[in-house]
Specification:
Radius of gyration: 17 Å
Structural class: alpha+beta
Distance between the termini: 29 Å
Shape: globular
CATH class of the largest domain: Mainly Alpha
Number of helices: 9
CATH architecture of the largest domain: Orthogonal Bundle
Order of helices and strands: EEHHHHHEHHHEEH
Number of domains: 2
Length: 167
Amino acid sequence: MADATIRIKLGQIEVDYQGDASFLKKDLLDTVKKLLELQGRHPAAAQLSHSKTGSDDGGGEQPASNKKLELSTDTIANLLGAKTGTELVIAAAAHLHFAKGKQKFTRKELLAEMRTATGHYKTTYHNNLASSLNTLKGKHRLRSLGGETYSLSHKEVQALEGKLAGS
C-alpha cells in the first residue's frame, strides 16, 4: 500500500497521521468518532474552543444546542452515514444549523452546502433536490417556512444532537 498523510482538526483536537493508506480506509472514521467522544467527555476543552470564538458572554457554558459544532458538511455526512441525496440534505442542514448557527436557511444555501461535501455530492442531487426536500418535509425532518426557506424540525435537531455529540 502507498503512504498517506492527513491532518484533522476538530475544535481543540488535532490529529496528524502519516503512514500506510490502509488505515485511512479501515480505521479513520472510528478514530474520528472516538476523538469526538473524548472531546464530548471533556467540557473544559469545548469551553476553551467556545471562548476562543469570542461568543462567550461570561454567563457560563451554553446548552449543547447553542454551541457551534466545528465539523464540515462532509464530516457530518460521514458521521451520519449519508448515502443518498436526501441524507446529504440533512447533513447540509445540520452543518448550517450547528456549525453556522443558522436556525433557517434557503434552498440555495442547502445546495451550496451540499456541494462542499465533495466526498458525497453527485450532480444528480441538484436535479432531485425538490424531491428530497418534499420527502424530508413529509417525514417531518425539515419544516418549510414559506417560499424556499427551511429549518430543521425540533425532533430532527434533537436526533442530530444525539448522533453528532455522541460520535
